[in-house]
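G., the chain you wanted modeled:
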Amino acid sequence: MKTILVIEDERDLLDLVAFNLEREGYRVLTALDGKDGLETARTRTPDLIILDLMLPGLMGTDICRILKNSDKTSNIPIIMLTAKGEEIDRVVGFEVGADDYVVKPFSNRELMLRIRAILRRSEPDVKDEKILRIGSITIDTGRHIVTSAGEDVVLTTTEYKLLLNLAERLGRVQNRDLLLKNVWGYNYIGDTRTVDTHITRLRTKLGSAGDMIKTVRGFGYKMEES
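Predicted structure as tokens:
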């Protein structure tokens, strides 16, 4: 049974989301403010976190940044749940490490779909364990470990899947819609900026090796060994 932590300061919405998650078979943890939510995430290490952006005590973006910068919690997928729907808010959420972004009001079906997609791509694929070496980058798919120039690179689940997708298709151009389907597991209609933001963050984390991820203008991305 997967455990999901919901950090939301609106009691009615918190109870509704928790009820629907339990009905889907998940174990649910809840928190009504940012500080309690952060402490619960650190001590209980859930399988996924649904995180409101605007919270008393500690902002959702701050919680996300703290969790993604900790070795213990960096791999926990985070869905930002917020009333803010402007593009800049989505970009900020992704830049601090969020794996997905759902805008209020939302349908329960949409939220459950995204949860299932994220949890599915978080599962290790033990059938296809291998080690990929591309330039100074090494990807150990069995242990989900990435190194660049011999140094460990801490990636979120989504960043890891994105890198692996590009590495396994070395030299082949992947358009944004295909990357959304292969990495996120469903279609973000009209929201290909999601891919661009994650690519930018991935390049930064890889250091100089990030230059191997090439932009193909008007189409998408590909990875080429220098």
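Residues 3-122 form a domain with the Rossmann fold fold (CATH 3.40.50.2300).

Shout if anything looks off.
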